[in-house]
Amino acid sequence: MDNKIYFDTETIDRLEKQQRVHLINSLGGFKSVALVGTSDTHGKTNLGIFSSFFHIGANPPLIGMIFRPSPPERDTMRNIVDTRFYTINHINESIYKQAHQTSARYDKDISEFDVTGLKTEYKNNFFAPFVAESTIQLGIEFREKIDISLNNTILIIGEIIQIYIPEDCLHKDGFVDLEKANTITCSGLDSYHKTVQLDRLSYAKPDKEITSLLQN
Amino acid sequence: MDNKIYFDTETIDRLEKQQRVHLINSLGGFKSVALVGTSDTHGKTNLGIFSSFFHIGANPPLIGMIFRPSPPERDTMRNIVDTRFYTINHINESIYKQAHQTSARYDKDISEFDVTGLKTEYKNNFFAPFVAESTIQLGIEFREKIDISLNNTILIIGEIIQIYIPEDCLHKDGFVDLEKANTITCSGLDSYHKTVQLDRLSYAKPDKEITSLLQN
């Protein structure tokens, strides 16, 4: 088809460090991006942007994320392991610049809530702070930590124990209209995107034509 | 803010099974979605759609994905473990219906390439088949299998050893313009979306205003 550039292991290795980081971070496709809210054992809040979330299973409802051993991710992970509770807060078009700013390396005693102006929200006895401006909010309980020795990263698995969704974004069949909730997606390290739905497709079966689930 | 529905563990548990599956699959946000191409040890091809990819690290370039123990995911995983090579092929607007169709439970001796009409492409001595119609293609070598005992799923980690990107989608700093490559994203089990870039933002630092990296 079109003219493609080809990289193999050798040409990947020869890339300048930041080029390689941008390239490899882009290749997985569009990513889930959200703000993770935690508190330390003294109640000091922390907020960080992450783009490594993935669905692990619906029963129990499990969500995974990857942590690097360096700051600022390290502080979020320590709070999760120490206190067992964290929030995942979807990012919408109104707050994505503030969300991006949380990736700066602030001192441990500075709360990213304070510097970005995003507001903490506490509800239903959940220990960790939600982001008040976030449209879809999840309360997560820590379940398991798995070390990935290949590159010294860590997989944290949590169970979704609280869910907050705008009423008009939840369909009868359980589907959540993320686009209506203004949830955005990201690519690479720094690119943010809103979405335009192409279709919802029927459950695929052999020898059966796929149909649209949307009513026109 | 708006009227939100609240679910806790009890109300999640009371959901009908398919409702719960749709709901929980939606909550992580927009997802990477791509076609995984494999062959078995006899060279019989297999193609499956997955939406559980995540970046693990840039050096070495590692990508992870989650497998359920049931078909059709089981066939893809067996091929990966047996032959050590697989391809990840981005999905664009022209092929997303065919891509969705690969999620049907075909007999093991039927190739999803044949039933969907998507074409195999072999190049640079890579063992597994690429999808010819895919704009961004990755050749992956299997590195590690980690069992997640919490819910009987499996994390497969691979190293990106071949990359094919359209020339005009690769920026000088290594960033890949997925939107220009027509790569799409998905949400929930069956909703597909194209994207509209909001911005690329500068590297965040404390006490420094974020700026746009886009030239207007």
Task: Detail the topology: elements first, then pairings.
2 copies of one chain form a homodimer.
Chain A (H helix, E strand, L loop, with lengths): L3 E5 H5 L3 H11 L6 E6 L5 E6 L3 E5 L2 E7 L5 H11 L1 E6 L5 H6 L10 H5 L3 E2 L8 E2 L5 E12 L4 E14 L18 E3 L3 E10 L16
Antiparallel strand pairs in A: 2-3, 2-6, 4-5, 5-10, 6-9, 7-8, 9-10, 11-12
Average of pLDDT of chain A: 96
The total beta strand count of chain A reads 12
Helix count of chain A equals: 5
Low-confidence stretches of chain A: none
What distance separates the N and C termini of chain A? Answer: 34 Å
Give the largest interface. A-B, 118 and 116 residues
Helix residue percentage of chain A: 10-25%
Shape of chain A, please? Answer: globular
Radius of gyration computed on alpha carbons of chain A: 19 Å
User: From N to C, what is the helix and strand string of chain A?
Assistant: EHHEEEEHEHHEEEEEE
For the biggest β-sheet of chain A, the strand order reads 3-2-6-9-10-5-4
- Kindly report the oligomeric state of this protein: homodimer
The fraction of residues in strands of chain A falls at 35-45%
Query: For the report, how would you describe the main beta sheet of chain A?
Result: 7 strands, antiparallel
